[in-house]
Amino acid sequence: MIQGIITQNVDGFHQRAGSKKVYELHGSINQLACLSCNRKYPSKKYLEEDGSFCECGGFLRPTVVLFGEELPKEAVQHADGEVEKADLFIVLGSSLQVSPANYYPIKAKKNRVKLVIVNIEPTEMDGYADLVINNRKIGDVLQEVNKELVG
To answer: Where is the Deacetylase sirtuin-type domain (predicted)?
Structure first.
């Protein structure tokens, strides 16, 4: 059973697919934050008249993390906790070149967690993995796994 998802994606697709514990390291396009008071709004606020402004008058922008900005502390803390509790850590479709996401597989291995890396191309972390699947589409691999698990 999946206990949590750590993602660099900002699109909210994991939540739309029904995943509950999703830790978005690079923020989300589905939430806006005021640059003045940090109040949060759903992205549909942009559709309202004057939807780019907070009640305080500050400018609203998506909570996506831009280059050089700090990652959301809460997401990083939860992600760290999930790695600590994991029995199996699966990397799907990441080159593992962006920090801090590229540290999580190493942290998992230090905790004696089984590591699986599925990526179309090899990564620098493949040597740490218990299983590496390259040159395959993630969707194909996941469909095969699901077929084996379901019957």
So the answer is: 1-151
Asked about 26 being catalytic, the answer comes back as: yes
By CB atoms closer than 10 A (0-12, 13-18, 19+), residue 112 is: exposed
Q: How far apart are the first and last CA of the chain?
A: 16
Determine the pLDDT at residue 68: 87
Which single residue is written with the structure tokens 């949060």? Answer: 40
Question: Smallest Cα–Cα separation from 97: which of 17, 8, 16, 20?
Answer: 8
Q: What is the pTM of this model?
A: 0.85
Alpha carbons within 13 angstroms on the beta-carbon side of residue 27 total 18
pLDDT tens for each residue of 104-125: 999 999 999 999 999 999 999 9
Task: Single out the catalytic residue among 6, 26, 78, 115.
Answer: 26
Q: Give residue 38's pLDDT.
A: 94
Question: Residues marked as binding?
Answer: 34, 37, 54, 56
